[in-house]
Amino acid sequence: MGSMALWQLARAGVAAIGFERWSPGHDQSAAGGESRIFRTAYQEGTAYVPLLLRAHDLWRELEAESGIDLFTACGCLMIGPLEHPDLRRVLTSAQTYDVPHRVLDHDQLVERYPQFAFLPGDSAVLDRRAGVLRPEFAIAAAARRAEQLGASVVTGTRVRAVEPSSSGVVLRTDDRDYRVGQAILAPGPWLSRLLPDLAPYVRPKKEVLSWYQAPRPEA
Fold this sequence. Notes:
By secondary structure, the chain is an alpha+beta fold. 30% of the residues lie in helices and 21% in strands. The chain has 6 helices and 11 strands.
């Protein structure tokens, strides 16, 4: 969120400065790791779909501006009984916003994807615009592009407090205080340290992700 906001602010000609406790693209945040799934037919609800469609275009724009391969549109196959609430929401979101998709019945799945073991009642929705993002590269690319557009990035610096002032906002860091007009906070799991009033409502949870080498990639 922080690197993308900085990129967009710099694009808009705003004099912006970003703070990063480590360096852009580190592995300590929610965006760490080799890959993340990106979907446009969304089981979490139709309200997200306009945001996702806009994000899809922005990923491509960031690729074009940075020259870095960030998104592989390989599609996403969501499998299960079509009457299952999750799959119903996927299909509804795709139909509501005319997202390119295909519904596959059990026989079509077995024929088209022989590498999977399907249950008797399985069907699937294929989200054609979905794919794989490279989050750490994306963050680094956005931060670098923001700098090229005139933004500043302060790395290896922890923001300890964000305080309103008569002229805007004071950011207190390990090294010095910064006085700015406005601040966007995107601290991830450290949110409650900067906004202690939210501490009762925010509980970071570690999710362990794993990547495996396919024994038969040709399948």
